[in-house]
């Protein structure tokens, strides 16, 4: 049986399944996109959960858009096994309760990753979720892993962007119409800044889609710093690294650019080729996010600016905070919410710059607006 192929254009989305063609005019869907960003600032001594409840009260009309019996996917990540900075189950439970009052049928979901660890397959991923408290009893709804046991369940959405002409997503993502994205904002070794765009563009792609986005990023070895400890060889998910005369060697033809080796190296011996690859990576991520969101009717993006670290929740351990807690942001516009959150967090200093170099996030913001992902001119409303 041939896979489903989704053809996405600016005005019309066509879904081709076998020989049957179904079309939906996206331009006639409810246009709820707004550049308003609500900000629930964490007050001194305030409980974080109360901060979230204040925000939900302000966006109550957004929640009301989810209709009776609608399946509302709540996208989030539970982080690595030893990571504790991720969004906690109690926040999700409050949101789920509000959705159920509307008669909606919420569920929490994530996708498998391309690097080694407990989230590389659905079995270990689900066990990890259970151990971290993401159970039906704690959430009030199920936690599922989209993409099948090994992440091989992948559908194609045809798009027409500069870098990407088709995107690959789990079948669930391909048919999803109602979405709430919960994002723990952090730094990131490649994108520099990780917000809702990354959570959607990378986080809602299939494993094949993730590899495509990373394919422009090829780490390089600094042989002077390499001690040949073997950590990078052991952790590489595609066995692209080998011992070459006592120094690590990366076979660029095999490398998928996941960046796992960069995180594993403790000697600063592996780095990204920032000059050539990182802007393409940022653009592809925005293109993926745009292609995914175009076919979704109702969507809300919520950014949690707590426990902000230099690296994302995918990495093990708990990195020190790089700034104080700010609060929680929400909008119907994914670009507006990411930019507003970034502006608040970097008002005094760009905390996401590395070695005095800014990452590709500023370029990604501009490119995202150019392709119609959202708006940079937002209106910040403090709750």
Describe this protein's structure.
The chain has helices at residues 48-58, 60-64, 89-101, 122-131, 136-139, 171-175, 196-201, 207-214, 231-235, 260-264, 278-293, 334-345, 361-370, and strands spanning 5-8, 12-17, 20-25, 36-41, 71-75, 105-111, 143-146, 155-158, 166-169, 178-184, 186-188, 192-194, 220-221, 241-244, 247-250, 270-271, 298-305, 327-331, 379-382. It is of the alpha/beta class and 383 residues long. The chain has two domains: 10-213 and 280-382, LarA, N-terminal domain (Rossmann fold); 218-271, Alpha-Beta Plaits. α11 crosses α13 (361-370). The model is unreliable at 6-32 (pLDDT under 50).
Instruction: Catalogue the unreliable spans.
Output: 6-32
CATH fold node name of the largest domain: Rossmann fold
So what's the CATH class of the largest domain? Alpha Beta
Report the total helices: 13
Q: Based on helices, strands and strand pairing, what is the structural class?
A: alpha/beta
Specify the overall morphology.
Answer: globular
Jot down its keywords.
383 residues, 29% helix, 2 domains, alpha/beta, Rossmann fold, 23% strand, five-stranded mixed beta sheet, Alpha-Beta Plaits, eight-stranded mixed beta sheet, 13 helices, globular
Write the topology of this structure:
Blueprint lengths: L4 E4 L3 E6 L2 E6 L10 E6 L6 H11 L1 H5 L6 E5 L13 H13 L3 E7 L10 H10 L4 H4 L3 E4 L8 E4 L7 E4 L1 H5 L2 E7 L1 E3 L3 E3 L1 H6 L5 H8 L5 E2 L9 H5 L5 E4 L2 E4 L9 H5 L5 E2 L6 H16 L4 E8 L21 E5 L2 H12 L15 H10 L8 E4 L1
Parallel strand pairs: 1-8, 4-19, 5-6, 5-10, 6-7, 10-17
Antiparallel strand pairs: 1-2, 2-3, 4-18, 8-9, 11-12, 13-16, 14-15, 17-18
Helix pairs in contact: 1-3, 11-13
């Amino acid at each position: 049986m041939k896979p489903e192929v989704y053809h996405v254009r600016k005005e019309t989305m066509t879904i081709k399944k076998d020989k049957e063609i179904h079309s939906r005019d996206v331009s006639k869907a409810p246009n709820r996109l707004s550049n308003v960003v609500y900000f629930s600032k964490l007050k001194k001594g305030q409980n974080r959960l109360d901060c979230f409840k204040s925000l939900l009260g302000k966006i109550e009309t957004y929640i009301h858009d989810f209709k009776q019996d609608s399946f509302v996917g709540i996208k989030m990540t539970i982080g690595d096994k030893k990571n504790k900075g991720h969004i906690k189950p109690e926040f999700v439970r409050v949101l789920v309760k509000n959705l159920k009052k509307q008669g909606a049928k919420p569920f929490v979901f994530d996708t498998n990753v391309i690097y080694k660890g407990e989230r590389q397959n659905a079995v270990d991923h689900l066990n990890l979720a259970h151990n971290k408290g993401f159970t039906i009893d704690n959430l009030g709804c199920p936690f599922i892993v989209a993409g099948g046991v090994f992440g091989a369940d992948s559908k194609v959405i045809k798009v027409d962007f500069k870098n990407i002409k088709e995107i690959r997503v789990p079948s669930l993502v391909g048919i999803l119409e109602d979405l709430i994205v919960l994002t723990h904002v952090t730094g990131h070794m490649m994108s520099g800044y990780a917000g809702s765009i990354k959570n959607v563009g990378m986080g809602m792609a299939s494993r094949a889609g993730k590899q495509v986005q990373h394919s422009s990023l090829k780490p390089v070895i600094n042989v002077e710093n390499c001690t040949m400890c073997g950590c990078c060889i052991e952790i590489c998910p595609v066995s692209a690294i080998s011992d070459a005369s006592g120094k690590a060697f990366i076979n660029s033809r095999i490398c998928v650019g996941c960046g796992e080796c960069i995180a594993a190296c403790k000697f600063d011996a592996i780095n990204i080729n920032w000059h050539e690859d990182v802007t393409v990576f940022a653009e592809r991520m925005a293109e993926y996010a745009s292609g995914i969101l175009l076919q979704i009717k109702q969507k809300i993006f919520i950014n949690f600016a707590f426990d902000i670290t230099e690296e994302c929740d995918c990495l093990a351990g708990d990195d020190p905070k790089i700034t104080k807690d700010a609060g929680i942001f929400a909008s119907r516009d994914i670009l507006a919410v990411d930019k507003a959150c970034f502006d608040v967090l970097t008002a005094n200093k760009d905390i996401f710059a590395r070695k005095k170099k800014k990452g590709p996030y500023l370029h990604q913001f501009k490119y995202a607006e150019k392709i119609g992902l959202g708006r940079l001119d937002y209106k910040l409303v403090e709750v």
